[in-house]
Amino acid sequence: MRSILFVPICILVLAADAAALPKTLTAAQLVDVCSSSTVSDASGKGDHLGWQRMSEADTHEWRTSFLAYNGGTVDAIGWRRGEGERDGSLSFWIATGPNAHKACMYSVGDPTGLLDDLTARLGTPNTLDKKDFGATASWKQGSMEGYYSQTGQSAIVSISYKN
Q1: 3-state DSSP helix/strand/coil % of the chain, to nearest 5
Q2: Between residues 31 and 19, which one has the greater pLDDT?
Q3: Exposed site from 19, 80, 105, 118, fewest CB < 10 Å?
Q4: What does pTM read for this prediction?
Q5: CA quadruple 128, 90, 116, 16: dihedral sign
Q6: How far, CA to CA in Å, does 77 sit from each of 43, 50, 98, 118?
């Protein structure tokens, strides 16, 4: 009798853990947030994902380093999919100054299908290099530059638009 009761409880616990994290981004969602014209616009799109918004404290170190590098201003927002580093994060910013641009960065711990999804959304990459341990790809379309880099089971995607 104990075994019969134990199995459903384990299934419920595992299902609750899997349901605790919002879904990873699709390429369409990523491009939608990244193509936002303002941080306010990106904020609405990003909040719709159900991810936890990063606090000012979470972005302070990055913002300080970026300002020192860029020499202008930066307006930024970010989200985390979960508490773990491999759960995923998404940042969007608009920078002014010598290197004025808008950009976003997405990191994910399980990039299964992401490169194919990006290729379906952005077209054939201008460069593509697949190895046993990972892959890199880049796209250039007008003022948009996109980069994908995967090593093992982690990937980073950056999309930027030059002013």
Answers
A1: 40, 35, 30
A2: 31
A3: 19
A4: 0.82
A5: positive
A6: 7, 14, 21, 22
